[in-house]
Amino acid sequence: MSEAFTAGLVQLTAGPEIAPNLAAIEDMTRAAKADAANLVCLPENCTQIEPNKEKIIGQATGETEHPALPRLQQLADELDVWLQVGSLTVRASSKHCWNRSYLLGPDGAVAARYDKIHLFDVAVGDGQTYRESSYTMPGSSAALARLPWGLLGLSVCYDLRFPHLYRHLAQAGADFLTIPSAFTKVTGTAHWHVLLRARAIETGCFVLAAAQCGTHARGRQTYGHSLVVDPWGEVLADGGEEIGVVTARIDPAAVLEARRRIPALEHDRPFAASASDSGQPRGRAS
Length: 286
Hints:
single chain, 16 strands, about 25% helix, alpha/beta, Nitrilase/N-carbamoyl-D-aminoacid amidohydrolase, 6 helices, about 25% strand
């Protein structure tokens, strides 16, 4: 495996205007670079959290016209870092957008794109109902990208609850998983740490999850706690609840070691999915 590297996770409270969010991202990416980060990860919707879906659609542009992407490419090039852009809103049609994640190389070029597959249509009990599908087009393809230290599997936020996506990425060779998020405070408090640790343990991958935090427009609250989790499930860094940057040293050899100790990715077996008709309660062996 390759030599170790440093990952930096940016945690912010994005508002509805792109310019101030970009300014904050630039400052914190520079801080991560100053702390020796080779790979910097940004959260979901890093340049804009707008509660009004009509405004989201009305303000969205195509990728080539996006006001944030060129500046982020320039930043990656200037700082000579890999920059994982958690996600941007990119116009897909007159009524829908993509929730698109990017990996930018240290030359600023787009190394990978991923459109969020699983859309957040839930009522979690925080006084708000979320219907991401009302303005977002779901993606249909998983995405892997090669870093100097191994393969990176991309995902976004609600994808976290669908473990088969991560198993697919790991079996396709992923060593690291990015899960940029804007998790609600309610669901984050209940599920964030355990789900991220589970995805790391199940796949034997490092998990890098940059997150939104704090209170956004119209009182939306996000959980924060940007996490770096190693392949054995140990939390290496936790961003807490405040705006800032956390870094962690990533040793790719830990991926091989975890998979040597528990080679679960090699042990999948086919099985019948039908329910038993033996009269036994479901979930109990006959």
